[in-house]
Design goal:
Length: 97
């Protein structure tokens, strides 16, 4: 965890401390759990993340806050490219931070 976050967690705030966590696995890393449990709430982007957080020992209230993307904006009427070397193969495409 970043030092500035650790320092702020130590202090008492008159407001809620809310964490936002994404993780592409079925369990939260063990070294995150202690720090996350200091929060008043944890926000996650989907139900699967909520289940993973609970199973990992996260105790604060968990809210699912979905990413807000208008996927219709990206739908195009485009025919797939015909690339003979890729015919009948599996193509995996990922965009992430």
């Amino acid at each position: 965890m970043w030092p500035i976050v650790k320092e702020r967690i130590k202090k008492k705030f008159p407001v809620k401390q809310i964490g936002f966590c994404t993780w592409e696995n079925d369990a939260i890393p063990k070294n995150w759990i202690y720090e996350i449990n200091k929060m008043d709430e944890l926000w996650v982007p989907n139900y699967q993340m909520m289940v993973a957080a609970r199973r990992s020992g996260i105790t604060p209230k968990i809210e699912v806050v979905y990413f807000s993307t208008d996927t219709d904006k990206f739908k195009k009427d485009v025919q797939p490219l015909d690339i003979p070397p890729l015919k009948d193969t599996f193509v995996f495409y990922f965009i992430g931070d």
